Amino acid sequence: MVLYHGSKEIVEYPEIRKARFQKDFYFGFYCTLYAEQAKRWATRYGDGYINKYEYVPSSTLNCLYFEEMTEEWLDFIVACRRGIPHKYDIVEGPMADDTIYNYIQNYLDGKISRAAFWELAKFKYPTHQISFHTISALDTLTFVGSEVVYGDKK
How many domains does the chain have? Predict the structure, then answer.
């Protein structure tokens, strides 16, 4: 299976980096099945690269998979965004893009109810992310190349 990672640089050797803010599935190396989504990641701030990897799943890893946005998915993202680590090597599921993230933040801040979150979230286009959280998880990826993509921002 081919996965894509959008970045401002070529990433031949993926890394797990601790950042200022936690992401949907906590700190990890994030990829997607969708090249167009990776392009959006790569061109957020200008030109970038879509990195391509061959992914071979491993039955020895502890994986969590969310097929769609569910109550469990929301609770998991809320915990990760609050900085609560998890025990998974790989987590896969829908992405809380900027709009969805704003709804999650409003829910966390008590500005909207859980029911209101779901009402707002149901009209979003499908997204996908798979995050790698351990060295063993990164070993399931093999870099196969990259391509430059051009952003609209100058």
Answer: 1
